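Give me structure tokens for this 103-residue protein.
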Amino acid sequence: MTVAPLLALQVGGSSLLTFAPLIFIFAIFYFLLIMPQQRRQKKWQQMLGELKTGDKVVTTGGLRGTIVALKDDALHLRVPPDNLRLEVTRASIVSVAGDEATK
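Here you go.
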């Protein structure tokens, strides 16, 4: 009669040990991949929200220009040397070049 409860405890304890490596691997993936990506995404969204006219920006296509006008989901860039005016989406902005020049 005393053997049955002991066997139940051993089986329950070993099942926890089988899931421990999976939990450990998920924790590693979270801290090395998921969390840094979320931080980058949050920083990028904040940068897009703080855009203003006169900022020098770089797009995903490599265009460098100065913001002339802002809309809800787009903005107008003046691209040298011919002062070409382009309309691009906010999501295509990679970075603000003015921050790099002042550092």
